[in-house]
């Protein structure tokens, strides 16, 4: 693909066709290398999830974890189905567009063209499956963090309901629960900080030829939908963690700490102070994953696309194309 890019530097359309797939493959390779390099850290996260502190909640609150598991399973199955459709389109579109291979290859293959065709489809299928698995695995961990924040919120709220009256005996029970809540909160913060996004924003170049709708247009449209879903899942889970981490501090204000022992107020103060700074998941420490950043990315992408289309349609820019 690098050879194809160098060969078609002056052909803007062919260059964009090669670049969008090349960048996708490059991103997948980077994610695989990052995951392999951080394998020990990832295994530590899995072991950390077995800590009893994450199970220190009443059985009736388990519905938060059940909801997260079902949600993650549904997202994973839907996402993989769409990715599978994209792979099928890559299998079919060269036949419809009368191209020799799904992806550009600079050398003449002769009778070995069919072997290369099968090789490209199989490798793309394996890569797409692994890529989607990495994405859904990471978002599932983010979902667990969000569910644990919901559970912690309910545990703090229940303190007021289970021990509504002031008294030495009640305050001892409250202190015992609050100590556990502080440990639980610290564990969630540690878990969220461990989820690092080794993702690189793709600089996508989409060229839509006005008035032309062919198999490649449908394939690119499917590809764009996958990218938008991929980004939305990450940003949505990141946004959930941010919102729910702030709500922990709000739960502390619902307890009548002013009528209780001084130690109760101290533990609540610790939790509230830790909740002032929302938990965030960042991508390579450059951008915070949230719905706001997703909206900004869409606006930026649309502006770039509009500019590219204007350059493509402007007769004065033909020499650049």
Structural overview:
This protein has one domain. A hairpin with a 3-residue loop joins β1 and β2. The two termini are 20 Å apart. It has a two-stranded antiparallel ribbon with strand order 1-2. Helix content is 71%, strand content 1%. α4 packs antiparallel against α5 and α7 packs antiparallel against α9. With 321 residues, it is mainly α. The protein is elongated.
Features:
single chain, about 325 residues, mainly alpha, 2 strands, about 0% strand, elongated
Structural class based on helices, strands and sheet pairing: mainly alpha
Shape: elongated
Helix segment tally: 9
* Residues in helix, %: over 70%
User: Mind telling me the C-alpha Rg?
Assistant: 26 Å
Write out the strand line-up for the largest beta sheet, numbering strands in chain order. Answer: 1-2
For the largest beta-sheet, the strand count, sense and barrel status come to:
2 strands, antiparallel
Percent strand equals under 5%
Order of helices and strands: HHHHHHHHEEH
Number of domains: 1
N→C terminal distance = 20 Å
Unreliable residue runs: 198-214
Number of strands: 2
* Overall pLDDT metric: 77
Protein name: Odorant receptor
InterPro entries: 7tm6_olfct_rcpt
Subcellular location: Cell membrane
Membrane topology: Multi-pass membrane protein
């Amino acid at each position: 693909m690098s050879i194809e890019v160098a060969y078609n530097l002056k052909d803007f359309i062919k260059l964009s066709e090669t670049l969008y797939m090349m960048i996708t493959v490059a991103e997948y390779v980077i994610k695989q290398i990052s995951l392999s390099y951080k394998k020990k850290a990832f295994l530590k996260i899995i072991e950390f999830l077995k800590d009893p502190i994450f199970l220190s909640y009443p059985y009736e609150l388990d519905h938060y974890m059940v909801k997260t598991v079902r949600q993650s399973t549904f997202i994973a199955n839907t996402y993989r189905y769409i990715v599978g459709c994209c792979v099928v389109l890559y299998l079919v579109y060269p036949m419809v567009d009368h191209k020799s291979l799904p992806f550009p290859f600079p050398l003449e293959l002769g009778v070995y063209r069919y072997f290369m065709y099968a090789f490209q489809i199989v490798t793309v299928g394996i890569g797409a499956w692994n890529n989607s698995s990495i994405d859904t695995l990471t978002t599932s961990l983010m979902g667990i963090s969000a569910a644990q924040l919901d559970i912690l919120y309910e545990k703090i709220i229940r303190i007021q309901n289970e021990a509504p009256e002031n008294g030495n005996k009640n305050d001892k029970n409250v202190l015992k629960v609050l100590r556990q809540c502080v440990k639980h909160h610290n564990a969630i913060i540690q878990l969220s900080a461990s989820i690092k996004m080794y993702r690189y924003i793709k600089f996508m170049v989409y060229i839509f030829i006005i008035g032309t709708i062919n198999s490649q247009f449908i394939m690119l449209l499917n590809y764009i939908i996958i990218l938008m879903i991929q980004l939305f899942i990450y940003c949505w889970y990141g946004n959930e963690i941010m919102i729910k981490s702030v709500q922990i501090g709000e739960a502390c204000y619902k307890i009548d700490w002013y009528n209780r022992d001084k130690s109760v107020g101290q533990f609540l103060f610790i939790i509230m102070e830790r909740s002032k700074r929302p938990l965030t998941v960042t991508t390579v420490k450059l951008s915070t994953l949230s719905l706001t950043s997703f909206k900004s990315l869409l606006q930026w992408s649309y502006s770039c696309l509009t500019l590219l289309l204007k350059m493509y349609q402007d007769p004065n820019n033909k020499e650049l194309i």
